[in-house]
Amino acid sequence: MRVGLIGAGRIGSFHASVLATADDVEALFIADADEQRATTLAARLNAGTTTVDTLLRTVDALVITTPTSTHADLVTRAARAGLPAFCEKPVALDPRRTRQALSAVEEAGTLLQLGFQRRFDPGFRAARDALRSGRLGRVHTIRAVTSDAAPPPADFLPLSGGLIRDCLIHDFDTVRWLTGREVTEVYARGSAGGAAFFREAGDVDTAAALLTLDDGTLVTATATRYNGAGHDVRMELSGERDQWVVGLGDRTPTTSAEPGGPGAPERPWADFLERFDTAYRAELAHFLRAARGEAPNLCSGQEGLAAQLIAEACELSRRENRPVRL
After folding, report:
1. pLDDT of the residue at 159
2. I need a labelling partner for 16 at 20 to 30 A (CA). Which of 39, 114, 224, 282 fits?
3. Are residues 94 and 135 part of one domain?
4. Quick one: signal sequence residues (predicted)?
């Protein structure tokens, strides 16, 4: 396959390195608004560089890793060009714009896979299988944790949509995917006791959400930009028969307070790319198979929209300090 990648930033560089070594990628071409950045990345990976217009005419599949503000337009253009596309989440920060882009995909009948990589993580997949098999019994409580080791640059905040839309949206998608249930009500709170640039951007550096699922299951989801112990993503599934934890291992950045309990790990997870390296590779490999018609789409644009609407409800709840029903 001839694959085009648009966006040579941090996540784009990672995806490009994976695609460059994939057996089923015959040629990789990179485009970026910063031509020098694209050229430097392409030279390192023995890939080609070109323009977005050329990519849309010449490749077999497209990977979109540009800033969020450009996603909807590129998704729409890929659909109209008849190309299967992989796009990092979200399609847009505005649900209305997301729906417009998804309508273009539907009209064209093309494939759009969104980048919710936790669906491809071995631990999350094992937990999903355990829950769906009935091994846990009735699951009454789910607890999700997403903690960055350090805050992002200040100029990232206006582009991200805020902590809830940027980070907790992953937990919202994962909960729906794991349980097969829908969220009926949310209540969210946030705080910004860290750097002033969070408050200046109208954002928070720590947030917590209580979700109620349509079967009564209660979900707590917390996120923070300040977790000096390391990057931490975990999820506890508590059922009447058993309890499972995703993300608990020898690199989990936690220290037991119990006598004789495990201490801090020697090498905690540094960031999300390291924590989900296996998942990122698996989602791209699956996308290539799906683009060839050899596998189903495991994370459609509509799935991404559903998670986005939960995030929007939580953001509204946080700002107005009230429960919000979906």
Report:
1. 85
2. 224
3. no
4. none
Task: Give the C-alpha distances (Å, rounded to integers) separating 274 from 33, 64, 144, 146.
Answer: 26, 20, 19, 14
DSSP state of 269: -
- In SS3 terms, 3-67 reads as EEEECCCHHHHHHHHHHHCCCCCCEEEEECCCHHHHHHHHHHHCCEECCHHHHHHHCCEEEECCC
Residues 145 and 102 in one domain: no
CA gap 318, 204 in Å, rounded: 10
Considering the domain architecture, whether residues 188 and 318 belong to the same structural domain is answered as yes
Residue 275 and residue 139 share a domain: yes
Beta strands in 152-256 (DSSP E): 183-191, 206-213, 218-224, 232-239, 243-246
Say whether 276 sits in a helix, a strand or coil: coil
pTM above 0.70, yes or no: yes
Helices then strands, counting H and E runs in the chain, come out as: 13, 13
Domain CATH code at residue 105: 3.40.50.720
Neighbouring-strand partners of residue 212: 185, 218
Rg (alpha carbons) of the chain, rounded to whole number: 20
Residue spans of alpha helices (H) in 184-326: 196-200, 272-275, 277-291, 301-320
pLDDT per residue over 154-193, tens digit each?
999 888 899 999 999 999 999 999 999 999 999 999 999 9
In the numeric block, the tokens 């198979």 are attached to: 289
Residue 103 in 3-state DSSP?
helix
Domains held by the chain: number: 2
Are the CB atoms for 234 and 247 separated by under 8 Å?
yes
